[in-house]
Design goal:
Shape: globular
Distance between the termini: 11 Å
Radius of gyration: 18 Å
Structural class: alpha/beta
Strand order of the largest sheet: 1-2-3-4-5-6-7-8
Length: 247
C-alpha cells in the first residue's frame, strides 16, 4: 500500500502549507488548541478550489469530551450535511456514551449522511477514550467506518504502538488504522515499519508571532512559554520532511 501522511490543519493557510509541502490528504479543523473543532465552510471551499487535496473535515461542536447532548448532535448532523454538500471528501467525528462505549445511535446517523455522498467516514481520537478498544473497533467496522485515528489509547502514539500494532494485525484488513499524536519526521517511519500501518497523522506545527495577542492588561494567549504571543501554523518544511522520511 502507498504510504500516506495526513496533515492536521486548523485553517485555509494551514491547508495551503500542507499542499505545498507535498501532503495528499488533510484533516481540516478550526481551533486546534482545543483539539480541533468543525472548520468554516469558507476554509473548506477555498481549500477545494485552490488545491487538489483530499479533505476530511472535523465534525466537533465544542472542546472537552465526546458525549453530546441532543442539541449538540443536531448541530453535528447539520454540519456534516453542509460539509458534504460543499465538497468535503469525508468527515472525522466521534460520539461516545458516558461509560466510554460507542454511541451507536448518534454515530450511525453521521455515517449514513456521509455515505449518501460517497464520502469517507473517520472515527477520530474519541477512540482513545473508549472502555474497550477491541469491542469499539468491531462496532465501528460493523457500522461501516472506513478509518480510525488513534494513539493507541495513550497520550502519544509511540507510547501506544503495541496496541496500534495489535489493532492493525487483527483488523487492518477490515478498517484503516491511522496513527496520530506526536507523530513527526523522526518517528513516522518507525511507527509504520513496526506496526504495519501505512498512514500517519501529523500536525507539523510551528509558531508565528501576533504582536497584538497581549496588550495593555488584556491577553488572548493560548500558547505556553515561550509562545505566549504566537499562534500555531502548519510548517511547509516540516511537511516536506515527514513526506520524504516515510518513502
Amino acid at each position: 500500500m502507498e504510504r500516506i501522511v495526513e496533515i492536521c490543519c486548523g485553517s485555509y493557510e494551514d491547508a495551503l502549507n500542507a499542499y505545498r509541502g507535498g501532503a495528499s490528504r488533510i484533516e481540516l479543523n478550526s481551533a486546534l488548541h482545543l483539539g480541533g473543532l468543525t472548520p468554516s465552510l469558507a476554509s473548506l471551499f477555498l481549500t477545494k478550489k485552490h488545491t487538489d487535496l483530499k479533505v476530511i473535515t472535523m465534525i466537533r461542536p465544542r472542546g472537552a469530551g465526546f458525549c453530546y447532548s441532543e442539541d449538540e448532535f443536531e448541530v453535528m448532523k447539520a454540519d456534516t450535511l453542509l460539509m458534504m454538500e460543499h465538497g468535503a471528501d469525508g468527515v472525522a467525528f466521534g460520539c461516545l456514551k458516558e461509560d466510554g462505549s460507542i454511541n451507536v445511535k448518534q454515530s450511525q446517523q453521521i455515517i449514513d449522511i456521509v455515505k449518501e455522498y460517497g464520502g469517507e467516514v473517520v472515527f477520530h481520537r474519541a477512540f482513545d477514550c473508549v472502555k474497550d478498544p477491541y469491542q469499539a473497533i468491531e462496532k465501528l467496522i460493523e457500522m461501516g467506518v472506513d478509518r480510525v485515528l488513534t494513539s493507541g489509547l495513550q497520550s502519544k502514539a509511540m507510547d501506544g504502538i503495541e496496541l496500534i500494532q495489535k489493532l492493525q494485525e487483527k483488523y487492518g484488513h477490515q478498517i484503516e488504522i491511522l496513527a496520530g499524536s506526536g507523530i513527526n519526521a523522526d518517528n513516522a517511519k518507525a511507527m509504520m515499519d513496526q506496526t504495519g500501518i501505512y498512514q500517519v497523522h501529523s500536525s507539523c506545527k510551528s509558531w508565528i508571532c501576533d504582536p497584538t495577542t497581549a496588550m495593555n492588561q488584556v491577553s488572548f494567549a493560548y500558547g505556553a512559554e515561550p509562545h505566549q504571543m504566537d499562534y500555531d501554523v502548519v510548517d511547509m518544511k516540516l511537511v516536506e520532511k515527514i513526506v520524504e522520511e516515510i518513502c
